[in-house]
Amino acid sequence: MMTFxxxxxxxxxxxxxxxxxxxxxxMQDTSLVSDxxxxxxxxxxxxxxxxxxxxKRKDSPTQRVGGTINKAFKTVEHSTRMLSLGNTYSxxxxxxxxxxxxxxxxxxxxxxxxxxxxxGVAISLHYENDTLVRAVTxxxxxxxxxxxxxxxxxxxxxxxxxxxxxxxxxRGEVFMPKQVFEQLNRQRAEAGxxxxxxxxxxxxxxxxxxxxxQVAKRKLDCYLYMLLAPGMQTHEQAIHSLENWGFKVSPTxxxxxxxxxxxxxxxxxxxxxxxxxxxxxxxxxxxxSIEQQEILGFTAKTPKWAIAYKYKSESACTRxxxxxxxxxxxxxxxxxxxxxxxxxxxxTVKRASLHNANEIERLDLHQNDYVxxxxxxxxxxxxTGVDLAQRQPGALPVQYITHCPACHTALIRHPxxxxxxxxxxxxxxxxxxxxxxxxxxxxxxxxxxLGDKTIALLYAKGWLTWPSDLYRLTAEQLLTLEGFKELSVxxxxxxxxxxxxxxxxxxxxxxxxxxxxxxxxxxxxAHFNTIDALMxxxxxxxxxxxxxxxxxxxxxxxxxxxxxxxxxxxxLKAAGLNFTSTANFQESNxxxxxxxxxxxxxxxxxxxxxxxxxxxxxxxxxxxISKKLDYLIAGDKMGPAKKEKAEKLQVRIISExxxxxxxx
Length: 664
Ligand code: IVH
Fold this sequence. Notes:
Layout: H1 4-27, H2 35-51, E1 75-77, E2 87-88, H3 91-104, E3 112-118, E4 121-128, E5 131-137, E6 143-145, H4 148-151, E7 167-175, H5 178-190, H6 199-207, H7 212-217, E8 221-228, H8 235-244, E9 254-256, H9 259-272, E10 280-287, H10 290-296, E11 306-310, E12 315-327, E13 333-344, E14 347-353, H11 357-363, E15 370-374, E16 382-386, E17 412-413, E18 420-421, H12 429-439, H13 452-460, H14 475-479, H15 486-498, H16 504-510, H17 518-528, H18 531-536, H19 539-543, H20 550-560, H21 563-575, E19 595-599, H22 607-616, E20 620-621, E21 631-634, H23 640-648, E22 652-654, H24 656-662
The site of 2-(butylsulfanyl)adenosine has 15 residues, from strand 3, strand 8 and strand 11.
């Protein structure tokens, strides 16, 4: 038997391990351990928590069984194996492939069908009586995960078609469009969250999420490229059938009469593919005739009638001109490699991310080094290596800064974190401007009449340091600025005025609390209803909200513990912004159909909170007392006239405590 101390240690280790494995599995789509090992660790933790209930954490992975760590997807066998493709980076290999085909077909004439190779997750869709009945991932090729509910959230996958076939299977690639991926990462950056590495892994992780409502938010898409149904003479015919039946097929395919035409197709898409909405990493070449495909057959793992040509991951070598350091709105410092301009994957690259100090150390970067930049699936090119042969003698290593480049405050680095921060949140200019930029963002207060340039100008004038300053700007003031005419000033002020109607959850997101992205803001607003309730919530109370973990909870509590932010919220309240949820988040229907008047001052609620609570439980708040009114909730200092009227009309007058007991 373990001592309590040993058990405490082990529980901590298990929590950390399982959390890490979950993250990797769901977010990066990598299994760091086998399912069996995972389950063993999980059971060990369950046992320990049963023996020592005090060690059970609210965010323990065991709490989520049935949630994220539940490997609930049914494993199903593929009726026809999902094969992979032989692949090559060399054109010579393609000529050899062509020779093998000619030989295999004993010099019968043949044609090829070329498609782009989409970089996503392979999926198989089964239709019975023209209805989508099952969607399965590739898995190990023989059996995969049944992810039907998640696949149904993908709008381009038809749930019903009209083919007249009793049953058939289609295969294709689920992907996250580049734009969606970029937007998702922008949101994560804004919330101070770690960025996803690339669109493919994010698509794959999204498909395996447990909550299909969350999958729906990921805006996945799907291209189909294979039909398993009788009666098809050629792959081309199959593709046209899919198109006619309403399946989404990428219009980038081409029939080719010879391998020379295939090579042309490859060259043609080499650069152009970067303009497509989906990441692609090569070309798939298929023999067009189904009969000939059957003649050619398969090797153990791949069809002999198809091959993938992969474009080399594009990289370029260029000189490092300088390393600059950017300060984000949260004070996070990002080192950036300033480069001699170089052509890469269809664009000119002048800058590349260096992530953090560890990365600079790993690269052992020196001044004026020639560096290798690569553009994989990532949006921002990254420095992947250094050409040591070109290093100049006596070149000095790149030094990480110790002080903020904008305000010269000494930087800090939290233990176990890779990122340096400027702690001068109150007066570091890029942080101030960044916070305002975030506040007016489309997903926040949506003041699109204001841009970064104007923010910088108003900040320089000393008129804008807090978001609440926006609501004090006047036309007289703005008209003194160069280039500001009546019309643009009116536009700007109208935009600011209109923002007062923004719903609470957007305002909350706009505050820019670290880790509170759009979705988290929605969850918090729906749960707490008012900023006052949220401001008073403890870490424990916050962690009771689904999906809110310790890291977010602590960040929220820390934010509201700072008087500067509390004062700012008071100023924003005074300006007339929404700090009460109007979304009819339904907690229960205990008060369905009942009407209430709220009057006086209460101990446990502000008046707004009390009203929000009534609504959340299905009740209705009205302003005047009538015979039809069900309840008058009387607080301290309620006006005597109201009381009198209620008594006269025989309306039930209840206390705050009576009200609370209605909810139980
Ligand atoms: S056909 C037997 N066509 O590449 C042939 N695959 O390495 C099956 N892929 O698992 C695949 N785009 O996930 C085919 N136009 C395309 C494709 C494509 C992407 C993926 C697919 C497959 C992998 C093979």
